[in-house]
C-alpha cells in the first residue's frame, strides 16, 4: 500500500509538472524570447556586451523628460481614479437599487475599450468643436490625464468593490452602536479592512497608466510622450533599437517591482472577509454623498462616449450617416481593405485569441491553485503565478517589435503566419483570464474532490463533477474578457499585423493619421461600432460574474 501510494504521488507530481510545462513553454517562446531579443539589442547593441549604452540613453535630456512625464501623469491619474472609484465601489457593491447592474457595466466598459477609441472619445469631447471645447484642454497634459482616469477608474471600482462585498458588517455595526459617526466607522473599521485592496488597485492603475499606449499617442501627439509611446517612436520611426531597449529594460524592472508589491498585497489575509457574502442593502440618507459621487463618475464616463457617438452622426453641422456609409470603403484610398472587412478580421482574430488564452489560462489557474503542504511547492506556485502575470505590464510595443526580431528564422519564422496576431493578443489577455479563474478554483473545498474520488470517480470524472460545475460561469466570463481585450489590442498588433488584414483599432489609428473630414469621421463611426460590440460583450460578462470574484 505504501509503495503504491508513493508511486501514485510520484505520478501525480509528474503529471502536475507536465501540465505546468505547457503554458510555461508557450510563454517562454512567445513572450520571454521576443522580449529578451528586444532587450538584447540594448545591452548588446553591436554584438558585444555594453551596459554603458543603457546608461547613455538614460542620460539623455529627452529620456529624463519622458520618464518624469510618465511618473507624474501616472501618479496624478492614479490618485484621481482612486478618489472617484471608492464611492462608486461602495454604491455598486454594497447598495441595492434598480439599474445597479447596468450602471456597473457602464462604468466597466471604458477599461476594455481600445485605447485608441478612448483617446479619440476624449479628444472629441474637448476639441474646439466639442462640448467642453471652451476649456481649451485639447493638446494639453490635462487631456491625457482625463483619458487615463476614464480608462482606469473601473479597475478601482472592481477591485475595491469585490473586497467591499466580502466585508463583515458586524464590526461596523458594533462601532455605530457604540456611538461612532459614519465617518469614524469608515476611518477606524472599514478603511483599515479595505487598505490592502485599495493599495493593490492603486498599484495596478499606476501600472496601466505607465504602460498606456493609444491614449497618450492620440491625445499627446508628438508634443507629449510617455515611456510607452517613446519606445514606439524609437522603434517604428527612428529605428533606434538600443535606446528603445534601454527604456524597455527600465519599464520591465518597474513592472516587476510593482507586480511583486501587488502580489504581496493580494496575499495579505483579511480577517474580516467571510465566505458568505453579506447581502446588499437599500440606500439610506447617509449614502447620498456616495450616490452623488457615483452619479458624477458615471457622467464623466458617459460624456466622452456620448461626444464620440454624436460626432459620428454630424457632418458639416448637419445630421448625417455618411461616416457609417463610408465604413464599407477604404478611407480615401489609404487602406487596402474596407473598415467593415477590418471589423470582420478583428472578430476572427479575437475568436482565435480567446480560445488560446482560455486554454492556457485554465491550465495556469489549475496549476497555481493546486494545494501543497511543502514550502517548496508553495514557493513554486507563487513564482509561477508571478511569471504568468508578466505580460500584464510589459510594453505591448516591446512585445510586438520583439516578435519581428525574434521570430524571423526557422524553426520559429512566424512573421507570415496568420496565428501570430492571435498569439500576441492571447498573451495580453492571459493575465485577466487567470485573475478571473484563480479565485474561483482556489475557493473549491478540496474535500469535495476527495469525496468524489472515494466514491470511485476517476480524476477526470471528479474534475467534471466538482470543478467544472463551479467554474463554468467564470470560464465564460473570462472568455468574454479575453474577447473584448483582443478586439481592442493595439500596441503589439500594430507591429505584426499584415497590411492586407489589419484589425479595426489599427485601421482607426491609420484613419486618424491622415487629414480629411471623411477619414476622421469614419474613424469615429468605426470607434462607435467597436465600442458597441465591446459593451455588448461586457454586459454578458457582468451577468455571468460570480459575486465576490473578478478583481484584477
From TrEMBL:
Domain of life assignment: Bacteria
GO CC, any one term: plasma membrane
Chief location of this protein within or outside the cell: membrane
Location of the protein in the cell: Cell inner membrane; Cell membrane
Keywords per UniProt: Cell inner membrane, Cell membrane, Membrane, Transmembrane, Transmembrane helix, Transport
Membrane topology recorded in Swiss-Prot or TrEMBL: Multi-pass membrane protein
Single GO BP term: transmembrane transport
Gene3D superfamilies assigned to the protein according to its UniProt record, in alphabetical order: MetI-like (1.10.3720.10)
CDD domains: TM_PBP2
Presence of keyword Transmembrane helix: yes
Ranges annotated as spanning the membrane: 14-39, 66-90, 102-122, 142-164, 197-222, 242-267, 288-310, 349-368, 388-407, 419-442, 475-497, 517-541
PANTHER family according to UniProt: INNER MEMBRANE ABC TRANSPORTER PERMEASE PROTEIN YDCV
Recorded family membership: Belongs to the binding-protein-dependent transport system permease family.
Name of the protein in its database record: Thiamin ABC transporter, transmembrane component
Species of the source: Nocardioides simplex
Phylogenetic lineage: Bacteria, Bacillati, Actinomycetota, Actinomycetes, Propionibacteriales
